[in-house]
């Protein structure tokens, strides 16, 4: 294939925080003036990439983290253009949006929420020449791959922090939907906390939403009312953490480092670093080496990590966390290894055994120490 000259480079796309919903509007990263000399893109397929987001890019959390990764990928010389559509509801609306993007010639489409799984598979069957990558799901096809990270590793580390910092031994967890991804996080956090504080319990409130600041704040308030003095979450906004700060409790975030937003309560957070993975996928499509696979990277690939611990966390606790993190990076620590009991006292993983990836991806129990149930 002849070498293609790019006359412009894509600049990082800055979005002001906000909650407005854009279901149909496509927003493209602006172009800057062409430099004096432009380099030829390497031979291979030219990439036109599109991202489908479940929340607004200004959420400061899940969608914001993905968009930071998108901006990294957009700088690649063979990426012709990149677009995203934010606040796309899971379900029929997402099917329409994904179809529209494929019809408009985007040849690499990222769908970034669990509920986009079936719509992605449905649309991909109609566009065999388009590569689809679905985040956090488990269904694949010839032109559909999946990708996610073992964020539960960072959850475990944050649990160690919580277990050491609590005075009441009650930890509050604001959870979104009862899917395996969220359940794994609750369990890992609880196991981490109880590894250093066997008296710690984790109380869970389910919001049944990814992005609803008011509902998330109310959920955190209800946990604070029952003596939780550390609040963490699996949500897309900092609302639960802000509630914790207001009440004098500690806060452990998710998705991104929100330390500047919750300075009086912030401890740390499990965080995402999507840029290298988005670059890897784009390179594979460009080079013609892409294949359908299920990518599930851990802390050793730097896809997931723990945000820097704040000065509120004592040095000896930070040292303990960093020691366990080093074990994870070296492959010396297996998180879901038996014996593990559920919160009804039943042995779910026997001693000497560990959960396989498929078992983890379909996890549907809460471990000992979690006070709550999994709603339907």
Automatic annotation (TrEMBL):
Residues 1-22 form the signal peptide. Pfam families: Bmp. GO terms for cellular component: plasma membrane. Keywords: Signal. The keyword Signal applies. Gene3D superfamilies: 3.40.50.2300. Residues 48-325 form the ABC transporter substrate-binding protein PnrA-like domain. The keyword Transit peptide does not apply. This is Nucleoside-binding protein. It comes from Seleniivibrio woodruffii.
């Amino acid at each position: 294939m002849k070498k293609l000259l790019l006359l412009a480079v894509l600049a990082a796309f800055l979005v002001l925080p906000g909650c407005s919903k854009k279901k149909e509007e496509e927003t493209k990263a602006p172009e800057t003036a062409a430099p004096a000399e432009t380099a030829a893109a390497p031979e291979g397929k030219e990439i036109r990439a599109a991202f489908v987001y479940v929340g607004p890019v200004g959420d400061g959390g899940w969608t914001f983290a993905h968009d930071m990764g998108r901006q990294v990928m957009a700088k690649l010389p063979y990426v012709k253009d990149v677009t995203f559509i934010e606040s796309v509801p899971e379900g029929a609306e997402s099917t329409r949006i994904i179809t529209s993007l494929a019809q408009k010639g985007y040849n690499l489409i990222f769908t970034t929420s669990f509920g986009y799984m079936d719509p992605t598979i449905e649309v991909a069957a109609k566009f065999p020449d388009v590569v689809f990558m679905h985040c956090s799901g488990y269904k694949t096809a010839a032109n559909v791959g999946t990708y996610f990270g073992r964020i539960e590793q960072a959850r475990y580390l944050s649990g160690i922090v919580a277990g050491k910092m609590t005075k009441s031994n009650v930890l509050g967890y604001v959870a979104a939907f009862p899917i395996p991804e969220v359940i794994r996080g609750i369990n890992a956090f609880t196991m981490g906390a109880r590894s250093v504080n066997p008296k710690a319990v984790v109380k869970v409130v389910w919001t049944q939403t990814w992005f609803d600041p008011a509902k998330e704040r109310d959920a955190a308030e209800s946990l604070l009312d029952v003596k939780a003095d550390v609040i963490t979450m699996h949500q897309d906004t900092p609302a639960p953490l802000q509630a914790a700060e207001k009440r004098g409790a500690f806060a452990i975030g998710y998705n991104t480092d929100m330390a500047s937003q919750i300075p009086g309560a912030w401890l740390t957070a499990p965080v995402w670093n999507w840029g290298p993975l988005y670059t890897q996928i784009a390179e594979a499509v460009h080079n013609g080496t892409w294949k359908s696979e299920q990518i599930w990277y851990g802390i050793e690939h730097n896809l997931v990590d723990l945000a820097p611990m704040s000065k509120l966390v004592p040095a000896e606790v930070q040292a303990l966390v960093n020691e366990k993190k080093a074990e994870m990076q070296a492959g010396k620590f297996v998180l879901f290894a038996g014996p593990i009991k559920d919160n009804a006292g039943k042995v779910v993983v026997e001693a000497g055994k560990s959960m396989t990836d498929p078992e983890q991806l379909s996890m549907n129990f809460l471990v000992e120490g979690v006070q709550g149930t999994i709603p339907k």
